[in-house]
Design goal:
MetI-like fold, 14 helices
């Protein structure tokens, strides 16, 4: 292959990339345009008009609607879900990979079975359990079901990552007198930090964007999360679309920042390369 052909631009790939950029950028730019418009301007000039009089009144309306309370609850739920998910999934995946007993294999199959059960199919039993445990309208009523339905995929990814650690490494630590707990802390976790970060991000996004459990198991405004709080801009007479777009923008901003900072770990972890 000549040097000229090797450096020749790929116009087809470039055109498709630009097309995808337009497809993804237009909704974001539209949301930004709506978020900084007066509601009257949005109604008068239509949804494709640019903000003729940019305003921050929608930001004030969002803050006054209790957004900070919803944000605080969402952050608490997200942190609790990530911490609880990792605390359960890492030892579980380690036991599944290292143990050759029928109990470990059966537990792994049970977790895989959870991938086939959608939350909507069991929402009534979950609601009854929450009520019986006297957790209704609490943060834990959101955290526990969210963790339960996120664990199957997290354990599947972590188990695949832990299998990349060679047997020689385990045997070397065994010769040094290391027990199971020491190998988990000093070998497994450091070498699987990429996958652990990836599943941690997945658990955070799963909790941050959760809707069905907060909708069913909470009632009071003090325990609402962002996904439920957004419904406050919809009334029986209409929807305040500019204010809702501002709320959506503020809700998505932390997720966007998290993705920018940790996108390499997310891609590497789900690609199965672990901490390598």
């Amino acid at each position: 292959m000549s040097r000229h052909s090797a450096t020749r631009p790929n116009w087809v790939a470039g055109g498709l990339a630009m097309l995808w950029l337009v497809i993804t950028a237009v909704p974001v730019l539209t949301m930004l345009s709506w978020a900084f418009q007066f509601r009257t301007d949005f109604v008068d000039h239509g949804p494709i008009s640019l903000p003729l009089r940019p305003t921050l009144s929608n930001f004030t309306a969002v803050i006054d609607s209790g957004f900070l309370t919803y944000l605080k609850n969402t952050v608490i739920v997200t942190i609790a879900c990530v911490a609880l998910t990792l605390a359960i999934a890492i030892p579980a995946a380690y036991a599944i990979v290292r143990s050759h007993s029928w109990l470990a294999g059966t537990a792994f199959r049970v977790f895989l079975l959870g991938l086939a059960i959608p939350a909507q199919a069991v929402i009534i039993p979950v609601y009854l359990l929450v009520v019986r445990l006297q957790l209704y309208d609490t943060v834990w009523a959101i955290v526990l079901p969210t963790v339960a339905f996120g664990l199957p995929l997290v354990i599947l990814v972590l188990a695949g990552s832990l299998r990349d650690i060679t047997r020689d490494m385990y045997e070397a630590m065994t010769v040094d007198g290391a027990g199971a707990f020491r190998m988990l802390v000093n070998l497994v976790i450091p070498l699987s930090r990429g996958s652990i970060t990836a599943v941690g991000i997945f658990a955070a996004l799963h909790a941050w964007n959760g809707f069905i459990f907060p909708l069913v198991v909470t009632r009071s405004a003090e325990n609402r999360v962002l996904t439920i709080g957004l419904q406050g801009f919809r009334t029986e007479y209409g929807i305040n679309i500019p204010a809702m777009m501002m709320a959506v923008l503020l809700s998505a901003l932390p997720v966007f920042v998290l993705y920018v900072l940790a996108r390499r770990w997310l891609v590497a972890g789900f690609a199965g390369v672990g901490g390598k």
